[in-house]
Amino acid sequence: MSRLRFAVVGDNCVDRFQSPVNLALIGGNAINVAVQLALLGHEAYYFGAVGRDADGERTRDLIASNGVNVDNLRMLPGNTAFTNIDVTPSGDRIFAYEDFGVCQDYVPSDEDFRILFSMNHVHIGWICDCGTTRRRLADAGTCVSQDVSVNNDGIHLGTEGLDVAFGSAGEDRGKAATMMRGFLTKGAKLAVVTRGSEGSAASDGRQYAETGITPVSIVDTTGAGDSFIAGFLQAHIAGDTLQASLASGRECAARTCCYVGGFPQEPRPIR
């Protein structure tokens, strides 16, 4: 597969697993997708913001060490985004508190957009910009996708102009079908929906494809959906069929379930 130039715009986060785990990992939809694309052998550029703090330095250094270009990562006054996660005795995760830090107000600059316009593809994660980034990229003819199932206010989410709209429907096949129709009706060229243990499906209104999951011994599902996006995009942008692109996403997601976090890293104790 040829090496492609991808940019990923949006969120990053430090996941702080509370007592008794007491460990912190770097993640976030946009960061996870960028790192996975780099690990798949592509040029991956991350556009986002971290604080001028230890977490910000760790985030920058960690994703750079995984091959992501961080020239357009801004380090701003304020704190890096973080999420406090409680772990129940049964192992369930409860998102107890989120602080979006300097991510909250991040939008790409005009100079950032000049670089983004040159990419083979741009993926957008969580971002509070009222859809400006999506519309500006689409208007310039840049191939663009977005995860529209991220936890964000609806004013920042939309599918008009997207080449690929990604969503998550849990294990509900009916909900997945409705979601895909909605994405296409509202302007996306291609709708791709993950369905948990039921696999994933994709449609452009003319073609339809679906696939199951790759069974693995699950260690952690954090970031599996983000890895699916990276795997799907690398195949789809290279010109593969919908079926082959879903299979690529499936395999990438399965690998991620075999370790803790959205990409391989050494967890650190919470300070």
From TrEMBL:
The organism of origin for this protein: Rhizobium grahamii CCGE 502
Q: Which UniProt keywords apply?
A: Kinase, Transferase
Protein's UniProt name:
Kinase
InterPro entries xrefs? Carb_kinase_PfkB-like, Carboh/pur_kinase_PfkB_CS, PfkB_dom, Ribokinase-like
> What superkingdom does the record give?
Bacteria
* Ranges where the Carbohydrate kinase PfkB domain occurs: 26-129, 162-261
PROSITE patterns hit by this protein:
PFKB_KINASES_1 (PS00583), PFKB_KINASES_2 (PS00584)
Which Pfam families does the entry link to? PfkB
Against SUPFAM superfamilies, the record matches this protein to: Ribokinase-like
Q: Name one GO molecular function term.
A: kinase activity
Family affiliation: Belongs to the carbohydrate kinase PfkB family.
